[in-house]
Amino acid sequence: MFKRRTIIALLAALLAALSAPMAETRQEWSQPNKKWIRGPVRCLITPEEEKQFKALKTDEEITRFVKDFWARRDPTPDTPANEFAEFFWKRVEEADKRFPQTTDSGALSDRGQVFLIFGMPSRTASGKNMEWFYEDAPHLAPSSFKILFRQVGGGNFLLLGKKEVDALVVSNEFLRGVGEKAKEIFAPPPIVAEELPSVETAPPPEVVTEESKILDSLAGNDLLPSAIPIQARADIYQATKGDSFVAVTLGLARPDAGSGNVVGFARFIPEAADAAPVTLAASDSFAPAEAENADPAAGVLLYQGGSGLHPGRYTLLAGIRDPESGKVGVVKMPLEVPKYEGGTLMLSTVSLVSKLEGPKAPPAVGEGKKPPFFLGSFRVVPSLDGVFRQGSEVAWYFQIYNAVPEPATGRPNLSIEYNFLLKQKGEFRPVTASVIERNRPSQIGAFSFQLIKPTPTQKGWVEGEYKVTLKVTDEVTQGTVSGEIPFRVVP
């Protein structure tokens, strides 16, 4: 134990000694002096600017040059902020973290300098050389290309084909923050994220049905019909015009379904006094999960409906009626609909699902309606109890909002980290290594895997309570948001 603590202490001291000069160096590189041109900004310097800088004699001339250098790269000169400078120095910090070398700070390494100009690649490959692929970048000409590095020892990498990379930068001068195109790209426009599933958010017209009468009779009544035991969950996603879409999934055990021709209904009762309730009580407000319900092995029948809602707090009443027997079951739950539009990085509901399919074309439905169990091009069938058998497949789905696009590519750059934990002796402990998805332009999180059944010769997913923690990082802003997914594995 003494040796272990001693080694840890030595490592901590070594890391502290190494990190202190690097932090000091980063601060030094931003100061106007003769060393300034050899710092991270060297990837931004044009040949003409380099010539001008080398001719400077005094500290006053250097200070004026550096001030003018950043002024030429200010996309909004009439505002106090210089968005390009702020963007660049954030990348410097990120490069120092990502690409440390034994000889230079990360921002001064060849990989760091390429990152400062182009950002992270779409994908990478390693073989004789390390390959960085940039694909379909909307602002660049050409839009797709490859950059090579060779490892030269000590964890250091040398850029290959420097002339070709320099030529690429020259032909895309906005990468250095200069030119009219740079002003368009780096000025803070309204952020347009990847198009996400949108739905009609206007509430459906009120229909006087047996179901709406049941809902009316429950106003202010805490005693709810329970002749049909049902399960319910609500998943919330960004919709249009600042509103959200709430998908309500209802489930009932097959033996309780009678002939199966049941009718689902729901009402969203707002907490705000000046807002009107939204009712789903038409005969087609809820539709069945046809493929799953047709499976004789399915113990629970599923139905889904939904509506657009303004952000705010609601009480959800949701139920099922069997027209043949007249039996009714209703559940009640609080519901908070967040405002997703604008602001910081956010997640929709993280929906644990029993069936995830896509991308695929959703079925055609009536105008103004959304196909049940579809979110954009994904078919998403939620799991109501979170219980999965060994050998089955577990999956989840969520959407990411307010990610900032990379200025050079116009697309988000997201990383998602998953950690899997099993409850053991009263606490959750990791059971696998972290799974990390990097450089993702998509703002859709869809993940599935098989719960391999353990055998005498193969490890697998033992019976027990699990949870998955997820962390989404916006690599442009370094903003993060987290979520958690509980589920249970049974034999």
Topology of helices and strands:
Blueprint: H1 2-29, H2 47-54, H3 59-72, H4 83-98, H5 110-118, E1 123-126, E2 130-134, E3 145-153, E4 156-160, H6 162-171, H7 180-186, H8 210-217, E5 230-238, E6 244-253, E7 263-270, E8 278-280, E9 287-288, H9 290-293, E10 300-309, E11 312-321, E12 328-337, E13 346-347, E14 351-357, E15 374-375, E16 378-382, E17 387-389, E18 393-401, E19 414-424, E20 427-430, E21 435-440, E22 444-450, E23 464-474, E24 480-490
Parallel strand pairs: 17-24
Antiparallel strand pairs: 1-2, 2-3, 3-4, 5-6, 6-10, 7-8, 7-11, 9-10, 11-12, 13-18, 14-16, 14-18, 15-16, 18-22, 19-20, 19-21, 19-23, 23-24
Structural class, please? alpha+beta
The percentage helix is: 10-25%
Largest sheet, strands/sense/barrel: 6 strands, antiparallel
What radius of gyration results from the CA coordinates? 28 Å
First-to-last CA distance: 41 Å
Low-pLDDT segments: 1-26, 190-203
Report mean pLDDT, rounded to a whole number: 85
Strand content: 25-35%
Morphology: elongated
Q: Can you tell me the number of structural domains?
A: 2
**Number of H- or I-type helical stretches:** 9
Overall strand count: 24
